[in-house]
Amino acid sequence: MHAPSLSDQTFDAYTDVTGRDRLERLRSLADTLADSRILHVNSTATGGGVAELLRSIVPVCNDLGIDTDWLVMDADDEFFEVTKAMHNALQGSGPPLTEDMKATYRTVNEQNARELADHGEEYDLAVIHDPQPLGMLDQLEEMMPETVIVWRCHIDLTDPTAEYLAFVSEYTAQVDHGIFSRSDYIGETAVPGTSIIYPSIDPVAEKNRSLEAETIATMCDRLDPLSFEDPLVTQISRFDPWKDQFGTLEAYRRASEDVADLQLALVGGMAGDDPEGLELYEQVAKEAATDPNVHVLTDLSDIGVNVLQRESDVVVQKSLREGFGLVVSEALWKRTPVVGSDVGGIPLQIVDEETGYLVAPDDATGAGERVVDLLENDERRARFGENAREHVQEHFLLPRQLVELLDVLADELEYDQ
To answer: Which residues contact 257 (CB under 8 A, 6 or more apart)?
Structure first.
């Protein structure tokens, strides 16, 4: 296991974007947890929403005086192929679960648990993120019997494959508490106690902070051949079958029938624990190659993503399944309306006909028509953008999530005592 490098994120950076009551509540919770040691464990330091959340949460907690560590699993491609199959199956579609897959999962988790033991650290509470590190629980109970274990599930479990859910539940039954992003996700998962906490974006991180006009102009030049003079629709997400880049291409083609010179940017990165990413990127790039107005971009800097979300006329998130989809709030925070699928956490973020539009996940034609509606009505697009900024400020910024998370952790530590 290894500890990712972190920035010197400070609590004071949020004073201009969050209300005083929320900030005071955070300080009070930090005082309550000041004598506790907290550990977060996940499977990758780069790519995907979990790593982004931890990259902000951990340093802010430390700045607040809560002793907090973050450790990332060490694993090979074989393990990540198993856990990606697990991820897909828990969201509804995956291969049969074999004994060899279970053995690979257990072996790598046992190795990581031993590495954690070698660190010699003791923690009052450990937060295990998603299914990948759950296999460490047997060893953690032996090594740290007094440690409270919280499982943070970030994925959509509304229609899981039964054999995978049963396998995961062997471990979730051992935790003290589970945190889910929506109540619908709890389902038949074996967890002793649960809470619902919506994820959030970090408004002061490079991807979401305000930018000077000169910075925006420079980045726009670097994003050539994209033209910011012509209409631009963008989708930003990992190259993952659930994100449905092919459906977004279909929606773009429908919108292009009515909007001259329309462009589409399909932007994504490669998560460290997702072996499917490169293959899907190549498939999407091949499909898009015949249209000079479609641009498939990968591994943009956070500032590049920030600028694209600001300067696009409409953002699309046409996911088939979505644990939450923080890229939606990222765009809305920048006053860019979003056309998104009515799945997972997306309808929590998009208020239909107020901050964007919701469509059925398989309705590429409807998505294209909603894009046209926004591109042809500047006043509506601007109104939706202002509504979007206010909605995200109230519900989906990091300080709100931190208050709710620290509330749960404080309650669990108090209960354990």
So the answer is: none
Question: With b meaning 16 or more CB within 10 Å and e meaning fewer, what string describes 154-191?
Answer: bbbbbebbeebbebbbebbebbbbbbbbbeebeeebeb
The whole-angstrom separation of Cα 6 and Cα 360 is 39
CA–CA gap between residue 18 and residue 402 (Å, rounded) = 12
Biggest alpha carbon–alpha carbon distance for the chain: 65
Homologous superfamily assigned to 213-395: Glycogen Phosphorylase B; (3.40.50.2000)
Could you tell me if 337 and 374 are in contact, meaning their C-beta atoms sit under 8 angstroms apart?
yes
Q: Are 313 and 381 in contact (CB under 8 A)?
A: yes
Give tens-digit pLDDT for 267-323: 987 665 666 778 888 999 999 999 999 999 988 999 999 999 999 999 999 999 898
Q: Domain boundaries in the chain? A: 11-200+397-416, 213-395
CA gyration radius, the chain: 21
CATH of the domain spanning 11-200+397-416: 3.40.50.2000
Nearest CA to 337 out of 354, 325, 322 is that of 354
Structural contact between residues 208 and 292, judged by C-beta atoms closer than 8 angstroms? no
CB 116 within 8 A of CB 149: no
User: SS3 string of 333-382?
Assistant: HCCCCEEEECCCCHHHHCCECCCEEEECCCCHHHHHHHHHHHHCCHHHHH
Asked if 132 and 42 count as a contact pair (C-beta separation under 8 A), the reply is: yes
Examine domains 11-200+397-416 and 213-395 and report if their fold is the same: yes
In this prediction the pTM is 0.90
pLDDT in tens, 357-382: 999 999 999 999 999 999 999 999 99
The H or E element containing residue 68 is strand 67-72
